[in-house]
Amino acid sequence: MLSQSIRRNELLRCVRSILEFIEELSAKDYHSQSIVELLDAYRLTLNSLYGWLQYIKPSDLIPKHSNEIHNILVNGISTSLRYIQRSQTKYTPWSMLTLLEELVGKIYEDQRIVIRPKWRWHYQIATKPMNIKLSELLAYMCANDPTIIDECNKLEMMRKIRFVSFPIMEVDNYLAHILFFHEIGHLIQEEMFDNIIPKKLSEMMYDKNRKDDNDDMNARQITVYINMLLQEIIPDVVAYLLVGPAYFIGLFTAQNYSLVNGSDKLPTKQECSDIIKRSSLPTYPHPPLALRLTYLYDYYYKRDIKEKYQGCYYRLKPFSDCNDYTHKETIARYSSTEPNIDIAYRIFIAIMEAVKPDIKKRLDGLVYSGASRTDIEYLLNKLRHDIPPVELKNGNVAEIGDVFLAAFFYVYFEIIRKEKNPVSYCEKMETMNKLIKFTFNGIRYKDMYNACLSR
Predict the structure, then answer these.
(1) What is the 3-state secondary structure (H, E, C) of 287-302?
(2) Which residue from 190, 79, 195, 198 is spatially nearest to 127, judged by alpha carbons?
């Protein structure tokens, strides 16, 4: 076993190495202020840790704490720095990042995001901040060395930085980037799970007549199903409210790829029981995509087709004329093997109705209003003529949802249905994505310009 003195010296060496790497990363150029803030926070943390390790007596550094520190350095901070190292490469859609940073700032003033590419083919947000264990360690340091309390208090902002990952192969596929809005929705889903949903679920799941183990197994399965649906469909609803029908179309088309997590099978009673027993904070599996699309279709997309987008119906129909996403058909398909999904889905609907006002309140002023058919056709015509669709015919700035909707129409009606030559198909898709990239930059700068004029 290593002596306590050797343990401390090795930790000091490790901290010093990471600090040197942080200095290397700090010398790079970044498009996001969040990354600069995160590097500053890590530098402050590690300098405090370095000073504490020098101050503490080797005999006071018990093996448990030295192991915790080493684990945080190797598996926590080093992982974050690896993400940051990738974030400064050319493989990041900066125009999308800028819009998302501004959007997150409007929803949660104290939240920050860092976008980074990954090889796995799906979108993901780190729902738990990377520094939870680090905060625990700093609290321990403060208790043993009151002189660093002020430095530790400055690190609270690190709790607010999240990493959002996207598949590196899709860096230039802006249609796929509509899934970013679902990941942003997880921030609101977390808030709902922390404050509202547990009470609602407890009220609806309470059964004074429960008698035996079989009833408990059923209750566990229903609980897992409800949480599984809420965990992914709340972000779906947030994304739909932010960008409108384009999100449903994006989710509808993404089902053909691995961009969306989830099996088409529901977990069994035993699997659900194991999920709950494994942890006090269980990780729920993704629900089948058909259940997510069913909810969006029934409660949002179908309504919008009838009320808001009658003029665009002939264009929206190819993405909605599908019996697979009617409530009756979908639930019947899954309840044939797992009957409890029927009960779970009904309770899930009741909880969603209860939290809808809170979701809309959190998105106050950001909900997509929906352009007219004339506006969408105008943006579509711009894409046909290789012009970035930044503004509407009346000169107003196009909403992000308008741009995505026009882009999906352009791809489906102008490329997929017409273009048979694979080379030309790829070239047209590349051109379309470049136009959308320029559009998002243009929307941002035109918004800033208009804001200056209004003052």
Answers:
(1) CCHHHHHHHHHHHHHH
(2) 190
